[in-house]
Amino acid sequence: MPDSVHAMSPGDSAPYDGHYAGDPFQVLSRVFGHQAFRGRQEEVVAHIATGGSGLVLMPTGGGKSLCYQVPALCRPGVGVVVSPLIALMEDQVAALRQLGVAAAALHSELPEGEARAIFRDLHEGSLKLLYVSPERLLLAGMLDRLEQLPIALFAIDEAHCVSQWGHHFRPEYRGLGVLSERFARTPRVALTATADPRTVEDIRQQLGLTDDPVFRGGFDRPNIRIEAAPRESERAQLRALLKDQAGQPGAGIVYCGTRARTEQTAEWLRGDGHDALAFHAGMDAGAKREAHRRFARGDSVVMCATIAFGMGIDRPDVRWVCHLDLPRSPESWYQEIGRAGRDGLPARALLLYGAGDIALARHRIEESPAAPEQKRIERQRLEAMVAIAEAATCRRKLLLRCFGEDTEGENCGNCDVCLAPPKMFDGTIAAQKMLSAVLRTGRRFGVAHLVDVLRGRMTDKVAQFAHDKLPTFGVGKELSDGAWRSVARQLVARGALDVAVENHGELVPTEAARPILRGEQTVLLREDMLRAAAPAGGRSARMGGAAPAGVASNDPVFERLRDWRRAEAQAQAVPAYVIFQDRTLAEIAAARPRTLDQLASIPGVGRTKLERYGAAVLRALEG
Predict the structure, then answer these.
(1) How far apart are CA 164 and CA 171, in angstroms?
(2) 562 φ, ψ to 5°?
(3) Nearest Cα to Cα of residue 132 among 142, 141, 121, 140
(4) Which of 75, 377, 530, 553 is at a distance of 20 to 30 A from 195, taking alpha carbons?
(5) What pLDDT, in 10s, does the model give residues 93-152?
(6) 200, 216, 232 — which closes off a domain?
(7) How many angstroms separate the CA atoms of 35 and 529, rounded?
(8) Domain match, 163 and 262 both
(9) Which residues pair with residue 278 across a beta bridge?
(10) Pick the residue with more confidence: 167 or 322?
């Protein structure tokens, strides 16, 4: 993809000229190729198109972009969209240009000549949507320039970046409150997929939206299967997931806690024969651009990345996301797993975690220079994440509750707990044995040595410290090594044990251990976690159908359409999905249209795409 994109270039379809101004349904149909809005889109669009402002909360893949793009095309003037990432802006612009919409992006990497061309188009009134970074928008003179122009609306994407309580807080976003002062009569809409109630109120306060409505579209993404498992054999567990996903088109993302781990994971995956890429903030800018370009253009890659990758990515066919470390909050996790299945088709999210993750996260919070109130909130969020990871009840219910959604009725039916409900048992005695071993060995040892003591294994270290003389030596032979590690992990999760991360990972008891040791508190443990750990994501957890609904996984027509799309995307240097999404290709493959009129009736085929690609699609269908 080119490093920068401006409005339109010779040979493009004619830019959208406002012919349908004032009619959202005409814009939706003729420009975007859809016959109906989804969820609360229609309500939001009508409110903004008639001059209203507000905050939109919709899940990733829920159609937030249409909530400002359609009103911007209905109203006179240019719609200004504030976006945090260059790659995100360029992908959005590329997708709009495919639809014939005159769009441009202003950011720090734009050559001066292209920036001048964009300003010229802006002042001539030929742009309908302008994407801009918050830093560029707030530069001296930029707001003055915009005040001289008709502005259709301001859209603030990834609005959680505004809030100090948000999981991706960016100080430069705080300055956007000036828009409510200088453009008081211009519609302003803030949009995010991840904001808990505290963050929502902070966004409204900072952006001057306290008197405007909040449109909640619901956070549930029922097409994503949610799974979590103890990290027992990381490579084996990830290999099992990849084996289960073999043959399915699309991409996968592996989130790692450190830069080094992203590179190591990508390296061994390549050794296994996978097309794996690394992405983190410490990489050379050119290498990052190339990795993002390959991901965005639709290659079937595995992206191994830190959380520096992914905010706002538009690729719809990410089929799975795997975390190798515990996320710091449900909000972070939700945004990251939400990058899977944006096309609405089945997707998976697998979380692998260990007791050390929990302890390290707690330690970092306590050692941070944050204010006491901030630490308290971060602790709450971490404990909510731990509860989801160790859940014995529907994980989706626990996740949605973090966003203020208390779901009623039956469980989700698409998380590992619902699909294979775990059995609980009274593990008080096992917990007491583990806590006793920790205390009697002097709170100086990690879980591996404690397991040796409990299992009665005479190792050099056991002999060195005479731990074979302790009353706890050999009292735990009834459980396997993996089972005892699970007991320790579950005790860390409930706060009865901590891990001395600043030393060598020694297990130490907390105050919460006292009532357990005294027999005053019952400890329920998950029975499945006490069995010898098996790789997560095996065939029993396999998702249905590799291809989109209605299309056989080996349908040659669907594959011909994908091949044509791949070649077309490479020729234009744009992501494949901005030409047609898999869902649209699936509809075309299933319907087998023979004429342009029949093709025009397929959802996702708008006027511009019909004119540009219709004949080629029909040829591809003929084979």
Answers:
(1) 8
(2) -65, -40
(3) 142
(4) 75
(5) 988 999 999 999 998 788 888 989 999 999 999 999 999 999 889 887 899 999 999 999
(6) 216
(7) 48
(8) no
(9) 304
(10) 322
Q: Which two tokens stand for residue 530?
A: 């006490």
The whole-angstrom separation of Cα 308 and Cα 315 is 16
| pLDDT one-digit tens code per residue, 231-241 | 888 999 999 99
What 3-state DSSP class applies to 359? helix
272 in the same domain as 335:
yes
For residues 485 and 482, give the distance between their C-alpha atoms in angstroms, rounded to a whole number.
Answer: 5
Evaluate whether residue 207 is within a structural domain. Answer: yes
The model's pTM is 0.66
Q: Which residue has the tokens 């109203």?
A: 75
Structure tokens at 141: 């003179």
CATH code where residue 512 lies: 1.10.10.10
* Nearby residues of 615 by Cβ (< 8 Å), 6 or more positions away: 596
Assigned token pair, 496: 């009865």
Domain that holds residue 503: 424-526
The CATH number that applies at residue 81 is 3.40.50.300
Rg (CA), the chain: 27
Domain-terminating residue out of 216, 232, 259: 216
Q: Is residue 206 domain-shared with residue 352, that is, in the same domain? A: no
Residue 370 shares a structural domain with residue 432:
no
Element (H, E) at 131: strand 129-132
Question: Per the domain annotation, does 374 fall within a domain?
Answer: yes
Residue 346 exposed, middle or buried by CB count within 10 Å (0-12, 13-18, 19+): buried
Q: Is 578 domain-assigned?
A: yes
Q: Could you tell me if residue 250 is left (phi over 0), alpha (psi between -120 and 50 degrees) or otherwise beta?
A: left
Residue 535 lies in a domain: no
The string of DSSP letters for 509-532 reads E-GGGHHHHTT-S--EEESGGGSP
| Total domains in the fold of the chain | 4
What is the per-residue pLDDT across 450-485, written as a single tens digit (0 to 9) for each? 999 999 999 999 999 999 999 999 999 988 887 898
CA angle centred on 379, ends 374 and 382, rounded to 5°: 125
